[in-house]
Amino acid sequence: MAIQGDLLKLMRLDFVEAKADAPSIIFVDELDSFGNRESFDHDNKSYFTQMVHAFLECLDGADVREGVVVIGATNNPSDIDPAIRRAGRLDKQFAIPLPGANDQIGW
Description:
This protein is an alpha+beta fold. It has one domain (4-79): Rossmann fold (3-Layer(aba) Sandwich). It has 2 helices and 2 strands. The protein has helices at residues 4-20, 45-59, and strands at residues 24-28, 68-72. A two-stranded parallel sheet has the order 1-2. Strand 1, helix 2 (45-59) and strand 2 form a beta-alpha-beta unit. Helix 1 (4-20) packs parallel to helix 2 (45-59). It is globular.
């Protein structure tokens, strides 16, 4: 099991590698898994707050991420920390509804 320091190191490394391989895309699935710092309970607050802060550091500065597009997906956008959705980070949102019975897959 990885400890928090390892997770933070690997997350930062992903951004460094994406920049080195630019143009590139970083896709973060289940973006809400970072959580919202306002709703963390006392027991795990420090751990999860550090995770959110590290992710925010990776997102900050378009010049630092030049050539790197970051895309996140979630089923629960209201559970994403507002700072992650702030202008200049992941501020553009697109809702993709579930397909209906008459929809066709356009592969």
